[in-house]
TrEMBL record:
It comes from Archangium lansingense. This is Membrane protein YfhO. Keywords: Membrane, Transmembrane, Transmembrane helix. Signal peptide: none annotated. The keyword Membrane applies. The chain crosses the membrane at residues 102-119, 131-150, 180-204, 216-235, 282-302, 309-333, 345-364, 376-393, 399-415, 427-447, 645-664. The keyword Transit peptide does not apply.
Length: 676
């Protein structure tokens, strides 16, 4: 009997539904992949990393190494700031195009590198091939890891953590010169990536791996420190002379800590988005690690108690004052008072959970095959019923949807146990990929932080000198991005703003920073700003000047442009412009003799002055540079030649020579006992 044309068999419908689901999933994956290579958008990227990358690209293309940034504040060391990644080899990618176009692929490459490193680490830890692949996939797609797209230096630093740990395990198993050299290079790359917190965590894990191989460990760390000395030695000089040199108070250090209520966000994806998060930390808008990842990792953590203890310790440290451990760490551990933001201790969590996942899945592969799919169905049904019960009890849609999500993921994982080992690996990988793709596309901040045209300053915004930003930075967020772009805030001119960005190291003395915050109108005149951008009409009286541009909350005023330097002679003051104005060199031709030349740039060690070819002292005057004169000089030059960089460069060159000798020198061959 033939079926009617309008009828459709159950199997045909099933195939149709499966095809439709596969199409949706493929579209989601393509959308996720497209987002991962597009320009991410966040305040840190707009106001810090893109301007730094633009300045680095400009200087490298001009054939000079950027040691000093004359635009930030009243001038600021550039290479000494680890976040600028001046000597980080992958930073050369920015020479290929504008930073707005390169940043997305740059971060995506580090995400892939993170996955490859975790796969390698899992293999060295004894995981099977399938389990190691799943670990690499899990860490690369974990929402908690992808969230670091908003903090490029942290993603770069995190990408080297599994490589350092994996090489440490390999060296502990087979100690030799080649392994020591490889580990030293990886340690150097971790330092140059620009995240000192993650470098220290990587070294802490390295100590656990190599506690029995002291000689090899010290050799690798010494080589890595030598190779990266040209960056970290200037950084230490900047750190000692910065406002962090005296340490950070406990209250400021524990800002951006994980609250006890937010611990649930690690496992339940939608609770955070459906609840009032007033007063909660906002350093990371996503804390979710992935339900499928966490469920598989739980089995591995049960088997590997040491790994579970490490995860718990990092979680307690991330709680700040609430956990108690961070307070003692900050108070009693030498050097810990320089760091803040306890939530950064969560950064290695995706790698550790991926290792636990690999361990758990390896054991799962070797386990007995169940004869029914009921465990998965029962697990999913119980979670769905519980979610419905919470929704009926007005517990919040976030709780209900979160539990339903976890139930579906757990049900899918348990149901996959019926499959053969090969197909089971594909099924688990599909669950992880689908979950992360749906989350990132649906509610994850990656969807909001990706895309958008590159920020270009408005044609009406044409500053002639430094730009002062007297803005409430809390209002310059993604909602005001279009306005900020038109005013010209998120472009290279942002580096010209001397508004002290919260949390970033600035040169000592802190006089310039304090002056900007307490007396912005005086600071604008003292430092020589030609344009000031404000966000409040009430501030306009403090800045007499014509309106250059206005849009929304922002107002740009043109001020009278003072000279770059002031020549003092007999009680008179004469404004002077430089003949040569480059980041690391200034030259002034004086119209007449004088008693003192005050340059409107920040005083900082490393600057040297010459008057008519002879060295003259460089003094500090209200945080600026002052040069005493005899009265007959006609030419004054200033050069930035920091001794810390020269020392670090020499150490790095010597380390490179040692590295070359270690690589070229043939190793000892293992001679069989029978031939001796």
């Amino acid at each position: 009997m033939l079926a009617s044309p309008g009828a459709m068999s159950f199997s045909s419908r099933a195939r149709t539904v499966s095809l439709a689901c596969a199409t949706v999933v493929l579209a989601l994956l393509l959308s996720l992949g497209t987002m991962l290579v597009r320009q991410p958008v966040s305040p840190d990227i707009l106001f810090l990393f893109l301007p730094n990358a633009a300045f680095l690209r400009e200087q490298l293309l001009g054939g000079s190494l950027p040691l000093w940034n004359p635009l930030l504040l009243a001038g600021h060391p550039f290479l000494a700031e680890l976040q600028t990644q001046v000597l980080y080899p992958p930073s050369l990618l920015f020479l290929l195009g504008s930073p707005e176009r390169v940043l997305g692929p740059f971060l995506f490459a580090h995400l892939v590198w993170l996955g490859l490193g975790t796969w390698r680490l899992a293999r060295y830890s004894g995981a099977s091939r399938r389990a190691a692949v799943l670990a690499g996939l899990a860490v690369g797609l974990s929402p908690l890891a992808v969230e670091h797209y908003a903090h490029p230096n942290m993603l770069c630093g995190l990408s080297w953590v599994p490589w350092v740990w994996g090489s440490g395990r390999l060296l502990a198993r087979r100690p030799n010169r080649r392994g020591m050299v490889l580990l030293g290079v990886l340690v150097a790359c971790s330092v140059l990536a620009g995240s000192p917190e993650l470098t220290l965590l990587a070294l802490a894990g390295l100590g656990v791996c190599l506690w029995k191989r002291t000689r090899w460990t010290l050799g690798a760390v010494a080589l890595g420190a030598g190779l990266s000395a040209a960056t970290w030695i200037p950084f230490l000089e900047l750190l000692v002379r910065s406002d962090r040199g005296a340490g950070i108070g406990t209250g400021e250090a524990t800002s951006f800590a994980l609250s006890p209520a937010e611990v649930l966000d690690l496992a339940l994806p939608f609770v955070r988005f459906g609840a009032d998060r007033t007063g909660a930390q906002s350093f990371q808008s996503v804390l979710f690690v992935g339900a499928s990842i966490l469920l598989l990792a739980a089995f591995g953590l049960w088997r590997r108690k040491g790994l579970a203890v490490v995860c718990v310790v990092l979680l307690v440290l991330a709680l700040g004052d609430s956990g108690g451990l961070f307070t003692g760490f900050h108070r009693w551990v030498p050097g810990a008072s320089l760091f803040r933001f306890p939530i950064k201790f969560l950064s290695p969590l995706p790698v550790l959970l991926a290792l636990a996942l690999a361990s758990g899945y390896s054991a799962w592969e070797r386990g007995r095959q169940p004869t029914t799919r009921r465990p998965g169905a029962v697990f999913a049904m119980v979670c769905l019923l519980g979610a419905c019960g919470l929704a009926v009890a007005d517990a919040g849609a976030g709780w209900a949807v979160s539990l339903a999500w976890v139930g579906l993921m757990g049900g899918g994982l348990l149901a996959s146990r019926r499959l053969t080992p090969g197909r089971r690996g594909w099924a688990v990988a599909a669950v992880i990929v689908i979950e992360c793709a749906v989350f990132q596309q649906g509610v994850g901040t990656l969807a909001n932080r990706s895309g958008g045209p590159p920020c270009r300053p408005s044609p009406a915004f044409r500053p002639e000198g430094r730009v002062a930003y007297d803005i409430d930075w809390g209002r310059v967020d993604l909602a005001h991005r279009a306005e900020a772009c038109e005013v010209g805030v998120p472009n290279a001119n942002m580096a010209g703003g001397f508004a002290a960005l919260e949390g970033f190291v600035v040169p000592a003395p802190a006089y310039v920073k304090r002056l900007v915050r307490e007396e912005p109108e005086r600071a604008a005149a003292l430092l020589g700003a030609s344009v000031v951008v404000i966000d409040d009409e009430a501030k306009r009286a403090a800045y007499p000047g014509e309106v250059l541009f206005q849009n929304g909350s922002y107002l740009a005023l043109r001020l009278g442009r003072p000279g770059r330097a002031v020549l003092e002679s007999g009680g008179e003051r004469l404004e002077v412009e430089p003949e040569v104005d480059t980041p690391s060199r200034l030259a002034f031709v004086l119209p007449r003799g004088g008693e003192r030349l005050t340059v409107r740039d920040a005083w900082f060690p490393g600057w040297e002055a010459e008057a008519d070819g002879r060295p003259v002292p460089l003094l500090e005057a209200e945080g600026l540079r002052a040069i005493p004169l005899r009265g007959d000089e006609r030419r004054v030059e200033l050069h930035y030649r920091p001794g810390s960089f020269r020392t670090g460069l020499m150490v790095s060159l010597v380390s490179l020579a040692v590295l070359g000798l270690l690589c070229l020198r043939p190793g000892r061959r293992n001679i069989p006992m029978a031939s001796r």
